[in-house]
Amino acid sequence: MFGLWKTWKALEARGIMGINRRNADYVLKYNKRSLYPVVDDKILTKERAIAAGIHVPEMYGIISTEKEIDKLDEILDGRSDFVIKPAQGAGGDGILVVADRFEGRYRTVSGKLLSHEEIEHQISSILTGLYSLGGHRDRALIEYRVVPDQIFKSISYEGVPDIRIIVLMGYPVMAMLRLPTRQSGGKANLHQGAIGVGVDLATGVTLRGTWLNNIITKHPDTTNAVDGVQLPYWDGFMSLAASCYELCGLGYIGVDMVLDQEKGPLILELNARPGLNIQIANDCGLTLRTHAVEARLEALKSAGVVETPQERVQFVQEMFGHIPPVEG
């Protein structure tokens, strides 16, 4: 028992944030419950982002009731690829990604062929709340299918890689690239076997990776190095993440973004309870950085100053960026 306590004290000294501290000191402190629907419902998030002029995957249609499933043909008319997802889903469950059509059927990104009836059944399951937070009735969102930028071709397996940035009161404090694997079924979900790769906040260069709680430098499927990759449009990603504070009003969030080969950076969704594995990928504790931001906020408050998203990005890049490359 003493050994466990000693280990935890060592982790605390490195600024490693545990789930209890995250919940008590950040989620509960900075996130008003009344604002949760803005991030828990992907449709509301998308509508807010569009109104604010923030780029998101185009929304093709919404199905809210069983009767509205009849609108599916109209929504999909002329479209060979699309994504169907639950508005209040979590962990990537219930998402269906269609890449093209073949002989009257729909081909998923994994190559599986589905009938129109199977697509309708999936939507019906979404509406019943099978994949939603708390099991409540849900809505099905049909949207543009993101095509990943070519830079990810050598370090990702199927699916769409995404970038998660943790943001405290508008200040990006830590970033991670999530790469799908065969193990994760092409999903960028760490709990299902995706890779988390740390990213230097100042440069957008990838650091080492974590996979199934192990430290790695190569993708298990492509065998290519995941560290030392320069992510394009990095300052754009940082600005997008910082501006999401004004978008949703929540003070502690995870901003998930993608890089489309034609449309560039897009916001995918926001998370009011972002996970903590990002610390392993960055070999750094979140608490050290969140305390520095809180000290900054206190100093600015005393001076009567409020920083713009661009000023917030500049501060964190100077404070937390320029991490030396991983050796070996």
Automatic annotation (TrEMBL):
Pfam families: ATPgrasp_ST (PF14397)
UniProt record, GO biological process: SOS response
GO CC, one annotated term: cytoplasm
Record-linked Gene3D superfamilies: ATP-grasp fold, A domain, ATP-grasp fold, B domain
Keywords, in A-Z order: ATP-binding, Ligase, Manganese, Nucleotide-binding
InterPro entries found in the cross-reference section: ATP-grasp (IPR011761), ATP_grasp_subdomain_1 (IPR013815), RimK-rel_E_lig (IPR011758), RimK-rel_E_lig_ATP-grasp (IPR039523)
PANTHER family documented for this protein: BETA-CITRYLGLUTAMATE SYNTHASE B-RELATED (PTHR21621:SF0), RIBOSOMAL PROTEIN S6 MODIFICATION PROTEIN (PTHR21621)
Name this protein carries in UniProt: Alpha-L-glutamate ligase-like protein
